[in-house]
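Re: the 707-residue chain
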Amino acid sequence: MPISRQTVTDYTDANGEHVTVNARLDRVRSALQPDTGASTYRFSRKDIETIPGGDNAPMNAVLLQAPGVAQDSYGQIHIRGDHNEVQFRLDGVQLPEGLSVFGQTLMTRFAHSMSMTTGALPSEYGFLQAGVIDITTKNGSTDPGGEVSIYGGARDYFFPSLQYGGAHGKWDYFVTADFVHDRVGIENTTPKFNALHDLTNQYHFLGHVRYTADENTRISFTAGVSNAYYQLPNNPGQQRQFANPDFLNSELSHQVYGSVNSADLNERQKEITDFAILSLQKEIGNFSLQSSVFSRYSSLGYSPDALGDLVYNGIAQRAQRSVMSTGSQTDVTWRAAPDHTVRFGYQAYVERTVSKTDSTVYPQTGTDSDGNPIYSGATENIHDGNGRTGWMYGLYAQDEWRPVRNLTINYGLRFDGVDEYTHSKQVSPRINIVWQPWRGGTFHAGYSRYFTPPPFELVGGTSLNKFANTSAAPGTLQDSTVKAERDHYFDAGFAQTLLPGWHASFDAYVKLAHNMIDEGQFGSPIILSAFNYRRGQVHGYEFATDYSHGPFSVYGNFAWSRAIGKDITSAQWNFDPDDLAYIQHRWIHLDHDQRWTASAGGSYSAFYKTGHPLRLSATMVYGSGLRADGAVPNGAKVPQYVTFNLSLVQSFQDLFQVGFLKRTQLRLDVINLFDRRYELRDGSGIGVGAPQYGLRRTILTGLSQRF
């Protein structure tokens, strides 16, 4: 299902000519950014609807059905052993990075279709290159009409939504909005059925309007909003983290420990994202182009439990971060000759990030006879804040050359630079070769030089000296600047159509990294911080297959991966000095390294040729377990797990026999069908905060009405 090859259909309705022109322009836009030589897994509208939950499913749940995608806590995904180097594009335009940790800023409901491209990428893809998620948004041409939906169930899950699209003359438009309320906003810190203190309220909106001036010109505007409010789940029975001999026996200790319970903390986080994209698409003879300007604002605020955080961690910190990114992207295709297609373009971003913290700590008054610090019973307030403006940019040019009918060679150069906390540049050659020796068979091999700037919004700017001689003093004051990552990436694979409707593929890859970027959560605020390993290596392989015939479809894939790093060379103050010393001369597994990952699914539609089809679908996700601390940092792993999801959808056409009402749909979804208890994280490992457990069995029902 997820590896189906999507084709664009020319829809016909009362605005048939307008819709046909837009379908052709959609194909032209897709050709601006080809995936020659890379591995691409596509999710058509049918694929998305078939996954349990459909449009209601979070986007990471959809992407987990692609090969080599491992799940992590906070809704994060890892593609081919990388941490968060995933870029999201809306209709071909790359969105700048944001600050969301938990939230699904881009909802599945926004997508008419989407694709995930990974491997040795052509030169038009820069900055974040582990995977490119390109979302073709719904619009008035492909998704006309409206739909209202109510979805919900266990743990107070309540998810109403509304969408409407249409076309008038040269205009078409689409809007969708939803509200999410439940008590499982973040993964449970315990294996129990319900989490403590885990309420979330989220609001999402996407609007899309296009003006098709003529058959060669189109202007589009897309805007979105995501507001999310979270309670951070509590973990009962925690040991006192801020524990030293002097403090444990002090009057202050007896006073506060009797009134503070880790099951009753009240930590909260708020995440906001707003974005807008204005694009011009134009064809001029042998040239096609799309030029866009865009802006994204993202903010994150953490509110501590004023006493609880202080008692358990030695610091209660109210933290605020925001980033404002504005930029431009242009992609041009020149059909220079029958066997040469030249592409070139650029991306440029100007970013402003602001960080503020207000911390309450215990001041250190001295040391005891054993050298342990002694703290005052009084508290001290520390304010820290900084702001910085920077920019990054990329230029590329490439030629897709077909020397013979069944051979394609795509070669090009990319130049990238960053002037933010770090200042560096790189010229990156790339080449991909695709050979089709026989019908239905395709070999590909490629090499890409990558340059990945550190995430501007995640680079810490803490004034460490302010926390010296307090209960929040770091183990080391070393804080080298996070650097840009530089990689050599090799990829090769083969795909074959075995029978009509049956496809299979195999892919292998190796990444050799210098200054490998990783991210971790350090301290109570759930804000990821970036750091570098001086050297990194990632390699693995993937197998995928799918089959579809009439009302039946099935797919499956598995992947093996190994990701290791050596010598942490930036943001060292976040780490235990003993861990730093061990890692300096030894390779360790990255905390997100998962050896085996697999997913599978299938669907069958009964009565599919009637007006009341009944669809049964199921999906499976398997993981051998992310890393945890053992005898050495990241030297162990959490136990393996497998979960199954089930969906039953009954559709009725004209159920109420009312002219303006169309399809009615009833759905039943069961997440984690067999109620498996499984850990994603156990709370240990480099850059890992609290433990997180996967969602227990959850039964959800929904009703939607088209009009």
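The chain has one domain: 14-706.
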